[in-house]
Amino acid sequence: MKSRLIALGATLTIVLAACTSGSSSSQPPASQPAASVPAASVPAASVPAASVPAASTGGGGQVNLTIESWRNDDLTIWQDTIIPAFEAKYPNIKVTFSPTAPTDYNATLDSKLQGGSAGDLIACRPFDLSLGLYNRGYLASLNDLPGMENFDSVAKSAWITDDGKNAFCVPMASVIHGFIYNKDIFTKLGITTLPTTLADFHAILDKIQKDGKYTPLVMGTKDQWESATMGFQNIGPNFWKGEDGRKALIAGTAKFTDAPYVNTWAELASWKPFLEKGVEGVAYPDAQQLMASGKGAIYPAGTWDIGYFESTGLKNIGFFGPPVQNAGDQCYISDHTDIAMGLNAKSAHSAEAKTFLSWVASTDFATLYANALPGFYSLNKNPVTVTDAVAQSAVDLRQTCKSTIRNSYQILSRGTPNLENDLWADTAADVNGTLTPQAAAAKVQAGLDSWYKPGNVPQPGESTAP
Amino acid sequence: MAIAQPRVRRRRIPWHLIVFLAPAVLIYTAFMVYPLFESLRLSLFSSNGSFVGTANYNQLLTDNNFAPRFWGALQNNVIFFAIHMLLQNPIGLLLAAILSTRILRGRAVYRTLIFAPTVLSVVIIGFIWKLFLSPLWGVAQGGLDAVGLGQLYQPWLGLSGSALIVVGLMSVWQFVGIPMLLFSAALLGISDEIIEAARVDGANSLRIFRSIQLPLIAPTVGIVAILTFVGNFNAFDLVYAVQGGLAGPDFSTDLLGTFFYRTFYGFQLQLGNPTMGATVAGMMFLIILFGVVLFLFGIQRRLQTVEL
Question: Against a cut of 0.95, is the pTM above it?
Fold first, then answer.
């Protein structure tokens, strides 16, 4: 009896130790910089509410506002450039930028909001995470905020209720997809015109391939998201006609098994011979470094990469938009809404916070922000001049092409299996050649069909755990 | 007179035991036992807070969305465990046996070197091996080229057929020091007199190992097996560091730990589902509990510990 008790005790101890020692290190994967994967929302274990005071009134009628954000990379830019510009204009308001690590942001913010210690201004992830906060009453409606008229419906779409009636965050920045190319290689090989159609694009790829000295197309598939984000969502809008196709998916009138989507996957599958050898094992930073080392010619990109390449010394680069199917087609670009700012509904200084948000909605802020962070574009309707030439050439695409956002972000990723996860895995398999375009399409659509009924949309944030 | 005294003593409350046990018991209860039962309780509720009994478990085991991922992760986990049992522990034992021979010079150096990866962060391990195996600048390809086997090179981490095995081998490489250390300690516990007696009787090293050392360290073999089992079925960090939370390619490296992580905390656009996550954790608990109980009552108790 005694020995059995000891054995039982030992069992419990081992199991307990096992069950509690599990996921201790939740480092963000090195391959997913916060900037590049908008809404990378991998919160670590629930973090106790930090002791950041909501807002405290300083002496002399001065008000302190605190900004919650996941962009800790941008801390110096906020401290040295953006906030001083605001404080110069509104000397009675002091602003503190208080970022959390991107992977911890969602969970930390949640517990701060529950505990009533969150800052006055809240950086908003796009779509469901922020919509959930609004539904639970943590974010205030900003319909009447002066400055909101500076944003069109695509810009606002990521931070608005499904019925389009209540906007709750001021759109701040988007990232644009396209292709970064090495100008030196293009000159050396005598490529003088940038591709506008897919035929042009493939002619150029063939030419670089024939020369043999450079990798024509630089993209890895190991981390999976590149294939979906820089491949599928990059060239796809030209196939599915931007917003029309995206909204048709939500309405249920289009399916991933339709021609535009299958053709997108077919085009991506045709990239394999032009990608570096062993693409299945190439991670995102590997691809970045290959391009930065000058050995790659064309890089399917998001504009956040511009800053990276310029900082590594690959200065002579250019940007072109995703090629269209036939000459003369209307072009579409993924101008993806990535970051916004909202108002804590329980803020003690909502009037001052609204002053700040109105300023964020202004063209002044847009210019300041877009130049401090090349590759992150203001969503403001008024055109913004960007001094970085490459970043400017990317945002110029807005003049000729119609903007859309990634089609998996709004509503369609609310269920299980998650559409975005499926797109990552199946698009990577499609590029690798282990899944045909038709099979990838069928798999993705089957996953979506298993839970999504158009018109019967589950709301995020309504349910809470016991 | 001498008989009555012990009776009185036995009635006294053993305060010293209580005082010494209390801190550990309280801390374990507050931070381990309570959260564990709380997590199990959570798995019996739906995400809107209503009690649903074992419906979550039913869904996990049978639903078209959850079941393939769960069984896939379990199967991968079994393979992952098998790799460790077939490689890590025998190699650990072999190394310990080699390092316990007196004739080898520099044993401490070898022991330290072999143990070194164990104390490194798993993020570093993952990073180093990702670099080794990188198709762009990895030494794997160059190394194979140098011996004329270049065409054998594949981007193993990116192929669904090989990724899990490669990750398993990384883990073996990292943790082989632990069984080695435990076996070394057990081997050191065997008194030299027995070994010498065997040698005088004409036994060679292999015979000594098979007939004397191995039987005497059998309980340690059991402990190592159970630690490997528990460690493997809780494994998460290496896969997360090397292959990301989606455990690619195509979920081929998805273990119960990464599956739990995605379910509980969410991933990218997937929102976290605490109750379903607790259900996955509950299944992990049951699997580990079942394995450990089976082992302790089925095997460990039959092993004889020989007092020397």
Answer: no
